[in-house]
Amino acid sequence: MAKLQKTVQPRAWQRMLSGRRLDLLDPSPFDIEIEDIAHGLARVARWNGQTYGDHAFSVAQHCMVVEDILAQLKPGIAQRWRLAALLHDAPEYVVGDLISPFKAAVGLDYKSLENKLLAAIHLRFGLPAHLPEETTALIKRADKASAYFEATQLAGFSTREGLEFFGSPRGLAAVKLSPLPAAKAQREFVERFKSLLPGASQNR
Predict the structure, then answer these.
(1) 100 CB contacts (<8 Å, ≥6 apart)?
(2) What mean pLDDT value characterizes the chain?
(3) Closest C-alpha to 189, from 30, 43, 50
(4) DSSP run (H or E) holding 21
(5) Rounded to an integer, what distance in angstroms lies between the CA atom of residue 145 and that of residue 151?
(6) Residue 204: is its pLDDT beyond 60?
(7) Which helix (H) or strand (E) holds 13?
(8) Number of C-beta neighbours around residue 24 at 10 A
C-alpha cells in the first residue's frame, strides 16, 4: 500500500526584530509594530539604490517627504490623513521597493499582497482599511511630486525626463533632498509617526 505523502506548506511568515511573526499572505494587524516598519523602511533603498550620496535614499525618508508635501498641497488636512500619507509605502518594510516598471511586469498578484498588507497596517493604527478616494488621490499626487524631486536631484534624471515620467509638482515650494543615514531615518520616522497619532500635537 502506497504511503500518502505529506504536503508541506511553504513558510509564508517573516520573523520581525520585535519577535512578531507576520503572515505575508494573511497579515494580522496584531502582528504589526511601528518599530519594525521604521527599521525595515529605513533600510530599503528607493530607486534600487541608484542615487547620489553617501547613503541610500530610504523609503522611510521618502514617506516623510510625501507627508510633508501632502500638508503643502492641502493645508489643514486632517491629521489622520497625514498619518496615512506617512504609511502609504509601509508594506515595503517586508515586500521591498520594486521600481514601477517591474511592479507592472509582476502583475496584480504582487499588488494584491501589497494592498492586503496596507489594509492591515491601517487597521493597526486606527485608520480605515481603505481610504476615501479623494485622500488616496491626494497621496498619489504627493507621491508623484516626491518622485519628481528624487528623480531629478538624486537619481540622475534630467528635468525633461522628470516632467515626462512624473509630471510637474505644481503649487509646491521646492523640496531639497539629502539622504539620511539609516539609523537617523528610522528615528525620525518613528518621531513623525508619534506626532501624527490621534491626540498628538500637530506642532512639530
Answers:
(1) none
(2) 89
(3) 43
(4) strand 21-23
(5) 10
(6) no
(7) strand 13-15
(8) 15
The one-letter amino acid at 174: A
172 CB neighbour count, 10 Å cutoff: 17
Residue in the block written with cell 512639530 = 204
What distance in Å separates the CA atoms of residue 167 and residue 58, rounded to the nearest whole number? 22
Amino acid at 118: L
Question: Is 22 in a helix, a strand, or coil?
Answer: strand
Are 93 and 45 in contact, with CB atoms under 8 Å apart?
Answer: no
Q: Count the neighbouring beta carbons within 10 Å of the beta carbon of residue 145.
A: 24
| CB within 8 Å of 196: residues ≥ 6 apart | 67, 79, 80, 82, 83, 86
Look at the pTM and tell me if it is higher than 0.70. Answer: yes
Q: Residue 166 to residues 33, 45, 132, 142, 184: CA-CA distances in angstroms? A: 32, 19, 23, 11, 28
* Distance of alpha carbon 58 from alpha carbon 32, whole angstroms: 20
Residues 151, 139: Cα–Cα separation, whole Å:
18
Q: Does residue 173 surpass a pLDDT of 60?
A: yes
Nearest CA to 71 out of 151, 142, 143, 144 is that of: 142
CA dist list (Å): 186 to 61, 85, 198: 8, 16, 21
Q: Cell numbers of 20, please?
A: 512578531
* Other Cβ atoms within 10 Å of 10 Cβ, number: 5
